[in-house]
Prior knowledge:
The complex is a heterodimer.
Chain A: E1 14-23, E2 26-36, E3 41-45, H1 52-59, E4 67-72, E5 87-90, H2 102-113, H3 118-127, H4 131-134, H5 143-155, E6 161-164, H6 173-188, E7 192-197, H7 200-206, E8 209-214, E9 217-223, H8 224-227, E10 233-237, H9 240-249, E11 254-257, E12 260-263, H10 267-276, E13 281-286, H11 292-300
Parallel strand pairs in A: 3-7, 3-8, 5-6, 6-7
Antiparallel strand pairs in A: 1-2, 1-4, 8-9, 10-12, 10-13, 11-12
Helix pairs in contact in A: 3-5
Chain B: H1 31-43, H2 46-69, E1 75-76, H3 77-106, H4 109-115, H5 119-154, E2 159-160, H6 165-189, H7 192-209, H8 214-223, H9 225-228, H10 230-234, H11 239-266
Parallel strand pairs in B: 1-2
Helix pairs in contact in B: 1-3, 1-5, 2-3, 2-5, 3-5, 3-6, 3-7, 5-6, 6-7, 6-11
Amino acid sequence: MCGVCAARDGGDMITTERLTKTYGPVTAVDDVSFAVEPGRVVGFLGPNGAGKSTAMRMMTGLTPPTSGRALIAGRPYAELTNPGRLVGVMLDASAQHPGRTGLETLRLVAIHLGVPRSRVEEMLELVGLTADEASRRVRGYSLGMRQRLGLAAAFMGDPQVLILDEPANGLDPQGIHWMRGLLRDFAERGGTVLLSSHLLHEIEAIADELIVIGRGRIIAEGSLDDLLAPTTTFVRSLDDRTLAAALVETGAEVTTTPAGLSVTADAETVGRLALAHGIVLLRLSHGERAGLEELFLTLTTDQDRAGPVARPTGAAA
Amino acid sequence: MTTISAPSASPTASRGPQVGSFLPPPGPVPLTRLVGLEVRKMVDTLAGRWLVIVTLALALVLMVAFAIFGEAPEVTVGTSLGAAGGPLGILLPVLGIMAATAEWSQRAGLVTFALEPRRGRIVLARVVAGLVLGVAVVVVSVALAYLVTAATGLLGRPSGYDMSAAQLAGFVVVMALSVLQGVAFGFLFLNTPVAIVAVLALPSVIAVATQFSERMAEVAPWVDLSRSGAPLLEGTLTWTTAGQLATSSLLWIGLPLAIGTWRVLRSEVK
Lengths: 317, 270
């Protein structure tokens, strides 16, 4: 069903199993298990310090896990032969030597991977860096240019998997749109993408599945559509008061607004209840789609998971 | 939401070939390639390139200055190399240090270690790369010494070729050891300035420490790497002096390199 559910068969390209990293008393990554299938663009969403980067460093063999493990195509990263030919990695766009030109930076990667030199020019073209820009030293690059350079390096080995930490950071809206196209195309040709962001609008624009992480733990995961599915039903009837009382009895939460009731139950439940009580419905519809921002805030706010956040429901769709 | 896993099922699959199909299948990365890359990385930045240029330029300037203003009765390969020995002895360890530490301060190690997760191979490649570049600088310096000597002779002034093949080899070995010491200290501290200070201060520290007592003075030849190479230069290597070279090398090259390698293998790359 969903590409980011618990690990299962061997078809998954990125798998983490109970991945955990502690630094003294601090648990940076806490029992994280998920799997990403080919063809997916999965967003790793969480506030700064949530453990995204640490988890990605463990996936790429740069940080040893305290417990648990991470696998790429079923194998630990450190056991991959020439891993850059399978996994394109960009963990920090700023992690380029400032004294090298963009061109030299990419040439080093090409030599390491053992790919033809012509690949360097192709990658520059892919990420939209001009020959003039490529001949300049990285020191003078904007963050957006560094991101493009890092992506060019990640794509260099013609990989099947991309692991990108904050790749949209520093890109303007057009740049984000461009990256969406680049990563979608990659996924549609069978590629697997895991990218992180602490910004909702970036993830919303690029990913089609989400893993929401906070304080090192997975808080929610699933497709963007599922996570955005309406959680409330809007209803108006000739006897809102009776209907509200009946709904509360079933355990639903009811918010009374001047326009009607916002109920944490699905439309069928509300409709059947109204039928049972002989209440005439004037209107029955889904509530607003949950905004991702609200979801994000809801999921990451301190223990504040008592119940869905009440929303003003003036104009239901 | 249904599973999208087969790329051929996608209507947009015609956009391009399947990922991972552009290039020939990947092969392993040979160690020689890693060494070549590390050498290249040492000279493709301004700092690295200028270190090599300045080292050779200083060596040449000192050789020429010695040939012109020197008090020695004749200019020889040996006196020329002696004149250049100062900058070489200081800058070659720095070259080695930079081979080890450069990426640690610039975070470019994130890329290198992601491309080669078997970090021991990177350590080995950097040791060899430091040696290759360091020995290349030394060999060029020796060639410059011959040039200066020959030029002096052509100008009709007293000159001579006084170094045997064994002595020349000894000179290269001593200089190579100083590069290795730099690499070892670089890995030990993983911090360029700290490693440079440590390497440059070490001979003075040993000299002071071994002056305190008779017993310390007896130990000195066995622990002072800056002195134990002398028999190689003079061509007077005996079992005793070879042993002293071995113990001091183990202490100031082997040990820091072992600890440094352990650090690199264990540490988290951020």
